[in-house]
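How a chain folds remains the central question behind the approach discussed here. This step matters because it turns folding into a mapping between discrete strings. The sequence in question and its structure tokens are set out directly beneath this paragraph.
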Amino acid sequence: LGSLVGQQQQQREHKQLQWMGCLGSARHTHRRGPVLTHRRAVVAGCCVATAWRCDGLLGGEAAAFVSANGPRLQRQPAVVKELHPSAGIVQHSRVPRSFFDTQSSQPEVKPIEDVVIKEDYRLAGIFAVLGAVLCAVLPYAGFGLGALTLLLAILFFVQTGRVRFVFNRETFELKTLGTGPDLQEPGENVVVGGENRWTYKSFVNYEFFPKGLVEKGLPPVLVYFKETQTPSSEWSVGPGAAANSEDALARGARPGMVHFFPAICDTQQIKAEFEKRGCAKITEPSSS
């Protein structure tokens, strides 16, 4: 053990001599004037590199050099080990070494995580209660309407348990639950064909109907959005004919493909995700 400590002491003294010699060269170069500023910077870099790798460097010597050579070497302190042979303890002194640091000091920006919107069975429950009331109160004229409402309630209940709306890094898409834990592709769009996936930058508007319910924490009936990713030849299919008419465009509407789906998901969450992902929305002018 004594022999090992002696060898470590000799290595420490040798490294300190190398450091002091390098420091002397830097100071000598500094006395020769501003012409050798570039050479002085190179020598200073060698000194700091030697200090970085020197396990026996005293923090006070390094600090004296940095103090004499400008604040550009005093950005971030680096930990340097210092061995005390008498006690066999390794302590740590701090030596500025950010002159050679290449890692950016800016915090890493984390990408927005994928989100699967939670299901919401309130719409199915509302239609079920409404259908039962219509069948009970109006046994004749209301029976047909009540039965239709009950059928819609059953459809909404099944679709709520099966369909999932997913926000990925760049797209909003529709998926379905399968037999396994992974979500599955639902197939082509039933109206215009193609994938049920739309980029956020293609959105030109979105809304919830009836308007104002989401802001009050109540479930709407329909979720609406309009996008330009679908080929323009399909924009007039179904309700798109009225949504892209000259009158609608004159009132401030933007052309695009119209999509509706029942509010069988958490509309508060989907509204927050639309806003977070930067989906465009037409804001109506206030009446005041």
